[in-house]
Amino acid sequence: MVEREVLADGLTLLVERVPAVRSATIGVWLRMGSRHEPSRLSGICHFIEHLLFKGTENRSAREISLLTDRMGGHLDAFTSKENTCFYARVLDEHLPLAVDLLSDIVRHPLFDAEELERERRVILEEIRMVNDSPEDRIYDLFCESFWPRHPLGRPIQGTEEKVGAMSRRTVANFFRRAYVPENMVIAVAGRVTARHRRLLERAFTGLPSGKRVAAGGAPRFRPGLRRELRKDVDQVHLLFGLPGLASGDPDRFCLHLLNTLLGGSISSRLFRRVREERGLAYSVASQVHSHEGGGLLTVYAGTSPASAREVLALCLEEMRDLAAHAPAAEEVDVARDHL
Asked: φ and ψ at 233, to 5 degrees?
């Protein structure tokens, strides 16, 4: 059972006790991602995620890395379109130290000027890496075309131009407005005791108060075709999709089941038809993307230029068949067991 408590300052605590294990995972979740950024600051949530590991008032970047290794656990972070998360997986005996480290990272970052410029260069290289990887680049192109003029259509990592223009003051001011208790959820699961629960509350109490950031309006999709011609790759990378369901939609579980049937597993229709029976692609899959106010169901395949039309036709054929005919009970049972 998950214990949920909203503290007086608006911070949400989630605790799930699993006494049978000897490990624990803690996550510091921010209810903000690229969707919540103004256009001129596209990529700033991702930039801050990187910078919080580059030193605090109490620890240098090197000390953060060494402490993580000494715990023998895993410390990492990620930014999505609607969230930023910092998490650690450790043995239960190291949970107090992990709590202290994560609270230090998200509460007392230095934003040292030299470290900021170094990490800016790292992120610019990350942006270039994504742009050089067709299987990553295609998703940014798709969202940009599917949700034009909406924050969900912008890349999470931002652009070289906008990341390159962010000043230290801009980054620090955005951090102060975003990392407030009303925007944060602290979740911990595993071998967690009442002492750990009290430790969590003490570690994150006293954050400066602020306002919950709104997600803005629901996205409106625009049908269309987007192509990017490149001479340095051997394959055609296809990504097509249609509107899905919002993250809170009561039918979202049915959509996940449908996605598993379509292309979400190695026994799915797309994998079997395109790869196993025809040998036309190494990678073919469908995926659900759910956000507040809207979502996507997408299909991706990478294939040779000569096979692109056939792969597209086969995928559309399977989608039409699934829409027109109810799947067999056994197929549904396999997909449900997979989930």
From this structure: -130, 155
- Global pTM exceeds 0.70: yes
Give the amino acid at 95: L
Evaluated on CA atoms 213, 216, 221, 222, the torsion sign reads negative
Q: What is the 3-state secondary structure (H, E, C) of 200-231?
A: HHHHHCCCCCCCCCCCCCCCCCCCCCCCCCCC
3-state secondary structure of 241: strand
Number of domains in the chain: 2
Dig out the tokens for 235 from the structure: 């394959």
Do 51 and 140 fall within a single domain? yes
Confirm whether 231 is domain-assigned.
no
Q: Could you tell me which of 99, 101, 92, 53 has the C-alpha nearest to residue 202?
A: 99
Shared-domain flag, residues 110 and 250 = no
Per the structure block, which two tokens stand in for 19? 């006494």
Determine the 3-state secondary structure of 137 from DSSP: helix
- Residues 111, 33 share a domain: yes
Q: Which of the 8 DSSP states describes residue 207?
A: P
Is residue 246 within 8 A of residue 294, CB to CB? The reply is yes
The neighbour count for residue 221, using CB atoms within 10 Å, is 19
> In 10 A of CB 291, how many CB atoms?
21
Question: Does the annotation mark 125 as catalytic?
Answer: no
In the predicted structure, residue 294 carries a pLDDT above the cut 90: yes
Active-site residue identified among 3, 5, 49, 318 = 49
Average pLDDT over residues 25-42: 97
Mean pLDDT, residues 245-268: 97
Expressed as residue numbers, the domain containing 313 is 236-338
Position 212 pLDDT exceeds 90: no
Q: Does residue 231 register a pLDDT over 90?
A: no
Residue type, 147: W
Tell me, yes or no, whether 302 lies in a domain: yes
Q: What is the CATH number of the domain that holds 316?
A: 3.30.830.10
Q: What's the DSSP call for residue 114?
A: H
Q: Quote the DSSP letter at residue 327.
A: P
With pLDDT > 70 as the criterion, what percentage of the chain qualifies? Answer: 100
